Amino acid sequence: WSTLPLPDMPVNLAEREHINAILEDGLDNYVGVPVQGAISGRRTIQFSHALRSPDGKLLAIDVVSLDAAILQKLAPDLTATGDGIISIVRTDGVVLASVPTQEIGTRLPSISASPALPPDGFQQTMLLGRTDAVRRFHMLRRIGDSFLVVLVGLNEDAQMAQAWAIETQIRLWAALLSLVLVLGGVGVALGIRRQRILRETRRRAHDSALWEAFLHQFAENAEEIITLLDGKLRHLYVNAECRSILGIDPQTLVGHRFGARICPEDVAMVGRELCDVERYGRTRRFKYRMRHDNGDIKWLETEIRSLGAERYGTSNAYNYIAISRDVTQRTEEEAVRREVDEQFQTLLSLGPGMLYLRTVDAQGSRVATQVANTKLIEELGYTTDQITASDFFQTHIHKTDTDAEQGAFEQCLRNGSASVEYRFLVANGKLACLRDEMRLASPAGNLRRVVGYVTNVTEERETKLRLARSESLATLGRVSAGLAHELNQPLATISMAAENGIMGLRRTGNLTEAEAKFQRILDQTHRVGQIIDHIRQFSCAGKSSSEPFDVPELLNNALLLASSRLAATETIVVQDIQPGLPKLLLPKLALEQVIMNLIANACDAYEVIPQPTDGTFTESRIDIAARSDGEELLIQIADKAGGIPPDVIGQIFDPFFTTKDPGKGTGLGLSISSEAIHSMGGRLSSHNEAGGAVFEIWLPFPAGATGGTGSTTPTGHLAEHSTG
């Protein structure tokens, strides 16, 4: 709360003395040295109070900021002699405010060295002015049990001159009284008593007038509605802010009980608060609605407290003060925030995932986790307390996925975002597949915060697996259709060699010639076995594990699987493989399937490309290149079949998207291929170039990889699987 307008933007108070006294020194209350406001440019005195939980934990800090100039505005009424001073001093002697202006922030040794005053304690002393060397009577009164002392100083010479004048009058009156005593006796005594009562009454009236002048001066300089009330909570005085805030003439409220013009919905609540004030003298703060003179509704926040009138000798004047602030804008903003929060919570509760906020220390360790909704938590069979407990979530991630999850978390801290999928142990003992999308939020001091959204993608993964199996079966069917072509040649050779061997034995009986024929049969049988064994392995590609292999071997096997499609479309393949490429350590059969699928797509494109009408022939050709940049392997598969339409090139990796005619494709091949390459730590992309499509596969080499047995162009394989 401040006597000056509050700024529209947040202000960082972390370095202020009155804040550090609570945060670092553990104090409950503190009064700071006046500071120059960064926004207002005015000197203010800061009062801070710690709000703590029953166990002593700091929850918040209340700060009241008082404009030191208010004291200077009141000074003419409080220092009538013109050469007196009034100061507000901390109990350690530091001057917080002073009139006439002294060096604010300096220390008065005489105050700090004096015995500690009890709450509301009073003390008199004689001090020499530090700046003008004037001797003054100083009267000190401690304000309650606070850290503050009010100091009033009166010029000794002026007071002594006034005292001598009074003494002269006393002497004259004493002579007169002596005569009167002789004449009147008892009557004179009664007159003296009456004079004493009259002087005491005048003194009280004078003190009351000063106190009321102070209250009026304070009210007229305030930006809130200040109301002074009598013992029955009736308005005795209302400042001019009532007109600017509520459009009400303050004089129309005088004489009426507090609460006039309050909206009917809040009358009962305000009545209960006033009852507490009236019966028990409690300070109350409450918020309610009042109707502006133009019909608008205004929200006011009011604090009513007792003035302790008996302390100041004003028993029949102001008993209570009410300070009311216009909080309409703040209340409306709070209502909007509550509505947005409720809508957000509703959306979260309807969403399938779990939103979390994870706090990370300077070393990157996770120190705390908060969750915003519980639907996924309940689905996993746990409670919120379990999920947010230290290390619970990480210890329930499948052990083979913990490195991937930790790597994604570290990537998020470095780059600002990351995504990862991992298996998570459910309460019933089963495993669920979770997808974790992370974003780095704004930092809070030395701590960083990660916001994440976790969804259960178990069904999605199972669906993708079923689709991948379906696509594998479809691919296997296409491969099987080409088996007749691949097996027909060795079987024909076997048949011919067997017939020639039999005929040779019958004709000549030459065993050497027959042995050569049988060896050829054996070689061709071995080749048939290799083809059948590779097809069998390919049918189980989904179960393949990582193994080391050479890049040329990978490409040769893929061309073997696609040989029937190459032959059917009379497509030739030209390879350009960088020599000495390191071995790969990846799921070999799955990678073969991806490459075979890309080759088959190129063959399909050549099948539908229109041939020139001028009698010329367009060559169907696929270029396959493999090279390394030192850290990754790049495999390029390019054709000259017209390329991908520009308006759909961004959709070709989407599930079920296809440019083929109905019945010619499932739309899953490229989607599954992209997912398979991504799961290997690589990436698959495409673009158009030189009248055709180019697909690029980037794959990581294993750590410490060494060179393989690559060749520039395996011409034997090219001749075997190329036609045209």
What does this molecule look like?
With 724 residues, the chain is α+β, with helices and mostly antiparallel strands. Helix content is 40%, strand content 25%. Strand 18 and strand 19 (448-456) form a beta hairpin. The longest helix has 35 residues, at 186-220. The two termini are 89 Å apart. Residues 77-81, 173-191, 310-316 and 708-724 have low confidence and may be disordered.
Spatial ordering of strands, largest sheet: 6-5-9-8-7
- Low-pLDDT runs of 5+ residues are 77-81, 173-191, 310-316, 708-724
Rg: 47 Å
Largest sheet composition: 5 strands, antiparallel
Number-wise, the strands total: 26
Helical proportion? Answer: 40-55%
Fraction of residues in β-strands? 15-25%
The chain-level structural class is alpha+beta
Shape: elongated
The number of helices is 20
Distance between the termini: 89 Å
Mean pLDDT: 75
Concise summary:
The chain is of the alpha+beta class and 724 residues long. It is 40% helix and 25% strand.
